[in-house]
Known about the structure:
Strand content: 35-45%
Number of helices: 2
Distance between the termini: 6 Å
Largest sheet: 7 strands, mixed
CATH architecture: 6 Propeller
CATH class: Mainly Beta
Shape: globular
Structural class: mainly beta
CATH topology: Neuraminidase
Order of helices and strands: EHEEEEEEEHEEEEEEEEEEEEEEE
Number of strands: 23
Amino acid sequence: MLGAAVALALAVTASGGAAVAAGPPTGSGQVTRAALAECPPGPVWANTGGADPQLVQYSPDEDVLSSAPLARDYGDIAFSPDGSTLYGVNFPGADMTTLCTIDTVTGAETASVPVTGPLDDLRVSQGNSAVNGLTARADGTLIDGSFVSEQIFLIDPATGVSSLYPASLPAGFVSAGDFPTLDDGDVLAFATAAGSAAGDPSAVFRIHPDNTVTQIGTVPQVFGGALSGGSVYGFVSNGDISRLTDGRRRPRPPCCPSRWSRRPATASTARRPFRTPGSAPSPRTRSRNRPRPPGRCTPATPSRTR
């Protein structure tokens, strides 16, 4: 993996990170067709890894709006449902799994809490927790995935206590990052086959409200995803941002949440990658966007790339 890691987040889900992530679950408010037409694209936030980790804010045109040094390497980042708090989880989490809050202006950690429960038990049994997926749910809890387990977790950001999510990825798959909630109540999950090689395709799953899991397709290897403007965006391991489609609809520009079809997923390159100044493309990306207040169309937030 290259030294520079990036994570993206979209405001509807979040803005940031090298991988694309969507804003808050649509449970925070329904968006009308008129609102979709008027919703402008929002800034994108990214966190890089390596020797000099940075928090970078990009305009929708990919211009750098701001950057700040980060205290550590984060496996993924996510904004709270109201967009007021940016969370990051340390990577790889060999000594202790820690959830931090990050100042978006200075990049400094403003608070941290050790993560306890089954997610940290994974660190003990596997050598590190390797959290590479972090997404806020409408109730404020964080849904998390790990590169070393098929299990999915929840974290209470107030206490750091983790618990098992009632569904897990199918046997033989591990998290590839990010779990956006679709407006029909399903959770979208990106996964990779355990032991897969660099460049191998990623699987896309729907986790239904009854906790059954259905694979809906495969896409070029991604390390994060976001839901925005009726489309799902994935950050591909080669640094590209791809748009996932159902083979029928032409997605709207990224800005607002809407339903994604149950039809098999395909991917088409939507645009060139966001890159930090002077950095090489990272083979692993995540993304998130800063959510807007309930009932309004929101921008994307950050997620991480390696």
